[in-house]
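Ticket closed. Logging final result for tRNA(Ile)-lysidine synthase.
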Amino acid sequence: MLDKVKKTIKKHNLMDIGDKVIVAVSGGPDSIALLHILHSLREEFKLQLYAAHLNHNFRGIEAQMDAQYVAKFCEELKILSFIKSMDVPKYAKEQGVSAEEAGRILRYEFFGEVVERVGATKIAVAHNQNDQAETVLMRLLRGTGIQGLTAIHHERGKIIRPLLDVNRKEIEEYCAQYNLSPRIDETNLEPIYHRNKIRLELIPYIQEHYNPSIIESLAKTAEILKKDNEFMEEVARDAYNQVKLEKAQGCLALSIEGINKIHPALQSRIFRLATEELVGKKEGLEYKHIQGIIELLQKNETGKKILLAMGIVVKTSYNKIIFTIKDEEEEANFYYELRENGHLSIDEIKGEIFTKVVMREDMKGISRDKYVKCFDYDKVKEGLNVRNRREGDRFWPLGLVGSKKLKDFYIDYKIERDKRNEIPLVCDGNEIMWVVGYRISEKYKVTEETSRILTVEYKKMLKES
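Final structure:
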């Protein structure tokens, strides 16, 4: 078994020479065998080994005895051990998660603490071939895709699993061969959890009636699907980069037209990649969430939205589908008076306004920049100001006959709802003179009779370095 584990380490490049490795040790056969094997390989790989044990406080005195056993075992091997006790049942109740999930969260949180303390490069955990098979079956029964059936990976970040190619029987034989006498968690022998039922009831039934080698078969299936999944992920990432239109803080947009041209098998992966880029993980996106996004795409009605997991809102806006973590549209209302010659900063939208009044004969030319506009200053009666939209706003766009609702103007220009409140409006009192970046008003255009010209320039503030 030692040679088998060494082969796995080399095949999957799980460790480098000189690695500092934290070994997660529960005290059971799997983790004790793992620690013993890595201790045997420490000279060959020049390893610095540390052990980490978390008392979950589920089993009272038995759990305390586990911790004592791990401490003594590590002492015999001259390995520094870190042992911590946490109230996992209390955490599970407070967070509303299962006991198994609570244990996993706090366990990896503890491992992270030890990593920082010793500067570890790897965390070795003792998942084996049986765990792989059980995970495949669990996900298959629950319903999953190719990615889910790849189950447990040999390596993910700092986490490595050197025992993933050996089965539980081999581990037990190894422990017996070296007289390791690991602790046995009696709850693992009771069909009280879903995984335990699969381990103790379903797999033995399949072995007896269908396939004696079901453990190896399921592990092989997971390994085959990993390669298929890696290929599809690579293709999906290329497609994702092609359909991604823009990204801002807490928000990113994809092209609906682009997504519709992509095979449905890749669309779900693209949505998960968008989720990953937005919040740092994609595991929370379930089948029902994917279906909700697809239905949203099929309807393609501007303004429609759905709520996903992790606080993500997905909405359609013209030719875009937008992923955002802003639950509500943030209304940053602003209003500032403008001087006829001056400079104003608009902090709410990170913009600046520059104004200047000149006599017509002094004008050297009119800029074609969409953010620089000229107006007949003699037509300004109520006083200059800059603000964002208000309910009931109307506007007379240059070249049109009569005014129209500002809302309709925004719709005509396909301006997304969550962007409309960020557009500054240069006004004369309540009368809109310029929808900045779009159109000026017919009422304030420069004509042959104009004697004084007001120039207004809008700039986005430079980001602080």
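The two ends are 55 Å apart (CA to CA). No further action required.
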